[in-house]
Amino acid sequence: MEILPILSDSYTLGFIGAGKMAESIAKGASRSGVLPSSRIVTAHSNPSRRAAFESIGITVLSSNDDVVRASNVVVFSVKPQLVKDVVLKLKPLLTKDKLLVSVAAGIKLKDLQEWAGHGRFIRVMPNTPAAVGQAASAVVLAGGGHSANGVVAQGSQSEGDSNNTTIFVGGLDSEISDEDLRQPFLQYGDVVSVKIPIGKGCGFVQLADRKNAEEAIQGLNGTVIGKQTVRLSWGRSPGNKHNGNHYGGQGYGGHGYGGHGYAARQNQDIAMQQPAAAIQGAS
């Protein structure tokens, strides 16, 4: 089957799961002008949840099946423990011409790919200011992720690198210090180094042991460090260094954190950018 580009001026965004996270992202997208609410759909049986979306002009359909059929980009915003069952149930409708996005914490890309039956998946960890369009989101792309112009993104090598012990921490408040960031990680093992790039709203923590780093991601993702809820995922392995500014091989500079399936932007929610922008810097 030929994978056609997603037209950025006409695609429809669908949310599987109409909870607070989906509502925040949808509001941020429509209010910022990234995507009109008339091109956003979801489904929910609860009258109050339906009303919350309908009040901002979003169409609420009768079932998740209808949402998938109506959408070019499908965002799975259900609780992590429900993701597998939901994706498997919808699998017959998750054709390769659709771009799939997961905002569930702790779910690996390889599992999302397996459940969906293809690799056109993006994993996004938005932080709390998404509703006002000021979020910085870490984006991990599977090997089959395609942009609107058909470009194939590189796979998430950092996640699959068994030697990588560097963790990306997104959603940090501006007042947090290196020591503030270090403390929560000490319970998981020896911390090799901590770096907080100035003005980026994120940090990088390198542990000495891979297993300890995995446990830290599982244990601290979605918790409060400093004043804000943080989102954790793999940073770049120290062996993968780029020219220019870098920390542990995880490049940083400007608004993007490029390479090996990673990207982060401030002042806009990257999940709600036109599909091409969602993989900018990762191809």
UniProtKB/TrEMBL annotation:
A molecular function GO annotation: RNA binding
Domain named RRM: residues: 165-237
UniProt record similarity statement: Belongs to the pyrroline-5-carboxylate reductase family.
Keywords: Amino-acid biosynthesis, Cytoplasm, Oxidoreductase, Proline biosynthesis, RNA-binding
Organism of origin: Pisum sativum
InterPro entries in UniProt: NAD(P)-bd_dom_sf, Nucleotide-bd_a/b_plait_sf, P5C_Rdtase_cat_N, RBD_domain_sf, RRM_dom
Name used for this protein in its record: RRM domain-containing protein
One of the protein's GO biological processes: L-proline biosynthetic process
Pfam families the record matches: F420_oxidored, RRM_1
